[in-house]
Specification:
Length: 312
């Protein structure tokens, strides 16, 4: 993973909008978040996380033959962030693209890369989740600005005789498009300044309830598809939007919180970056060990949601 240097605490936000450290901690579990420097783009964060992932996997840019990035905050309309990272790291000609599925972006990207590796069409895939959500955050809106942060995480996928990614499961329901979105973008130009039209708008409480329901269902489906039950999961690595969503999901699934990786307190909601960042934190601190069964899940605007069952 890679996160920008600048830490923004709840106390700092309380000077900017009508909020308190106590409200933010108790409603979301967030204590601080990272915010990218003005000259730091999504591709910079993603490129740095990718470099760490390649080092950990013992591969070089020359080995990569497939590159996919989950992001909602691309540097540019085009070239896509995958191409920008390809150029930045000196990765040879290969498919390079980004997947736009909000907070589920990494799970979507992982699922696509898994299919290419499993069918032999890719031999070494780089999968990245990277975001600069601070660029589409309305810093005057207390209901959203306290929640989001910037960061990136990455993994390398290679073929193996042993199961690595056991299965992935993707879902979306566009009927919920209005509860979490931006008012404008590239093709849709509402009558407001472009910056403002890109601000995240969320009906938080509604999103919360749908999130818990969808995540419970997708975890159940994932386990049923593999004839497994929750006691066989060593680590739940959830999207880090809100500690109460994570707790409620774990409770419904009867997974003790000791088996849940939580980083929301340190980084807030980093959208597509949150799951690979949480995975890295738990690998680096020694919690996740070789052979452990991991259940990754995410939920976000669209609405989109998904899961990945992995033997690490
Ligand atoms: O990652 C993609 C998916 N995103 C999510 O899953 C996020 C889902 N939603 C949430 O995490 C929670 O709904 C929030 C953390 C956003 C809000 O928590 P909540 O318990 O659902 O609160 P609420 O929206 O029902 O608001 C409660 C009160 C409201 O005041 P009134 O109407 O009760 O007087 C808000 O105006 O809290 C007020 N409020 C705040 N107060 C202090 C909203 N934001 C703030 C704030 N500081 N920053």
């Amino acid at each position: 993973m890679y996160v920008p240097e600048r830490v923004v605490t709840n106390a700092e936000l309380a000077k900017m909008v009508d909020t308190t450290d106590e409200w933010i901690r108790s409603r979301s579990g967030i204590e601080r978040r990272r915010v990218a420097a003005d000259d730091e783009m999504t591709s910079d964060l993603g490129g740095k996380a990718a470099t760490e992932a390649m080092q950990a996997a013992g591969v070089t840019p020359g080995d990569i033959d497939f590159l996919v990035v989950g992001t909602t905050t691309p540097d540019l309309v085009f070239p896509n962030v995958g191409c920008l990272i390809q150029d930045q790291l000196g990765i040879p000609v290969c498919p390079a693209f980004s997947v736009e599925a909000a907070c589920s972006g990494f799970i979507y990207a992982l699922s696509v890369a898994d299919r290419f590796v499993a069918t032999g069409q890719a031999g070494c895939a780089l999968v990245i989740g990277a975001e600069t959500l601070s660029r589409i955050t309305n810093w005057n809106d207390r209901s959203t600005c306290v929640l989001f942060g910037d960061g990136a995480g990455a993994v390398v996928l290679q073929p193996s005789e042993e199961a690595g990614i056991i299965s992935t499961h993707l879902r979306a329901d566009g009927a919920y498009k209005s509860i979490l979105n931006t008012a404008g973008g590239v093709s849709k130009r509402p009558d407001m300044p472009l910056d403002e039209s890109l601000y995240i708008q969320m009906r938080g409480n509604e999103t919360f309830k749908v999130a818990v329901r969808c995540l419970e269902n997708i975890v159940d489906e994932t386990l049923a598809a593999n004839d497994m039950d929750t006691s066989e999961i060593d680590w739940l690595i959830p999207h880090q939007a809100n500690h109460r969503i994570i707790q409620a999901t774990a409770k419904r699934l009867d997974i003790p919180m000791e088996k849940v990786v939580l980083i929301v307190q340190d980084y807030g909601n980093t959208s597509a970056a949150s799951v690979p960042m949480a995975l890295d934190v738990a690998v680096q601190d020694g919690r996740v060990k070789r052979g452990d069964v991991l259940l990754l899940e995410a939920f976000g605007g669209g609405l989109t949601w998904g899961s990945a069952l992995i033997r690490y």
